[in-house]
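Input for the complex:
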Amino acid sequence: MTEPIVERFKGNPILTKDDVPYPVVTIHNAGMIKHDGRYVMLFRSHRRNGRSILGLAESDDGFHFQVRPEPFMVPATEGVFAPYEEYGVEDPRICAMEGRYLITYSAYSGHGVRIGLAWTEDFESVERVSLITEADYRNVVIFPRKFDGRYARLDRPHSEIAPWSIWISYSPDLVHWGDSRLVMKPVQYHWDEMKIGPGATPFATDHGWLHIYHGVFPTMDGSVYRLGVALHDLKDPATVLGVSDEWILQPEDPWEVTGYVHNVVFTCGAIPEDDGTVKIYWGGADTVMCVGTARISDLVQLCLENPRPPY
Amino acid sequence: MTETRLLRRHPMNPILTAAEFPRPVNSAFNAGAAKFNGQYLLLTRVEDLTGSSCLWLARSSDGAHFTPDPEPALLPASEEPFRAVENFSLEDPRIIPIGGTFYITYVGYSQYGCVTVLARTSDFERFERVSVMTLPDNKDVVLFPEKIGGRYAKLDRPLTRPPGLGDIWISFSPDLIHWGDPRPVMTPRPRKWDSHKIGAGAPPIKTARGWLEIYHGVRGTAAGLLYRLGAVLLDLEQPWRVVGRASEAILSPTATDDFHGNVSNAVFTCGAILEEDGELKVYYGAADQVMCLASAPVDDVIALCLNNTD
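Predicted:
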């Protein structure tokens, strides 16, 4: 048996609802960043009413996390965000940019699901900036660098005609977005044939931006969510240099195969380390948080040496 | 026959059909409308015999008798980034004069879904594509004919699942390239004629009582979808606020032209012209087949919006 690309941490799941000091029934789909040398995890939890909030956990080693006593973001109750967060805030991603941390999250309401942008400098206070999509959109990640003076984000628009794909859009100011174009789409009769979506915030390698995304395959027993990897050009992130033909992680552990939504591994964050590895964090079955480690060079190699067409 | 809705059909209907084009085509419908140098222009969606649509200009001196140009105005682009998003078809154009430029929003249809593309012209001879305005699926995009609060504004119709299936949204842009601050404007109304989905139709027309938007509303029936036209007034300065929305449809498929075609029971507008004498001319595609014209005094349309009986 060959070595797995992503080596699961032996202590998985690293966080469960029992580690959260307020009443929740899940802890999953966490955005990740290193702040002041510590690992910060911004996770999603379902409350007992079925609606989601965001909480924070911190760690010195990236494996053992302590959850803060209070939630970090709950649905806004006043102002322009309130009508769009009534059903919850979900699936945050964190992007370190210009001395602050940008947070893109799903805002869910009767108007559908759309993306909110917030930022924080210290993970003590958080400020909502703008709702940056219409409905329905989920899974927006922002690149941690500007390109020709503009911010860039990966999008996942919905279509009745095409399988849901990954697009890119650009912005001069984080509020107005445009110049959208297709980046990659699912491949028919492939593990990601039903839909794909941005996962972790991309990080730079010598060979390009590495983007760990999720892909979905429909089965008689519902959908299976797996993780894949793509490499984007460093200067032109709309250009995909290669997409691994194979997934890098699929639901296998008991807490990934069963849970609130069974057969799901779903990432919102990964942290590249100085030793050439990357810690990938994922929600297992929309219920618990897990972590695994991969060698960045292995992921790059998968993209370049055994690629499938981006579209 | 007696009209039961506010808009009165022109006796010449259909005013433009596939047969009048200089080569064999399947249908001519859903045209954007503009007045330019004293002429009426219809930028018409023309579907060819392969099923692909292009945009074709027809010109008129009286607003009722139109003559198509010898050649189409816009065919699917060969250059990126437009080629990828419109290689199947160009559909449902709207024309919006802003300053001295005529902007055109049209639907680009491809294997990646449907997006809206922005083009422009100053002479209706040469056309230049500006940008891909939306992600998929998003159509029924109209620009407001002037900036609002220092920014361009558009209405559009992103794809949402229930309960908000097919709402009209608004967003803003400093440069016609990047769009932001989106918010919902209108949703379908349960149990009414526009209960299934709605979308902007003609570009908004400025009136003293607000922006007049002629939109389409859809109801699901046992025989399929039924497309009608409605009217709404939006606040001049805060156009995401509805001033008044007519309870009734202002045009419903009732004429033979509307009943029979590739998509029966559909009236769909992409353009309206407000004449100096207060007549509102609404150009509409009937049954995804032909172009028709109906009109009413604009004051009657405004009154219907303000006398909402809901």
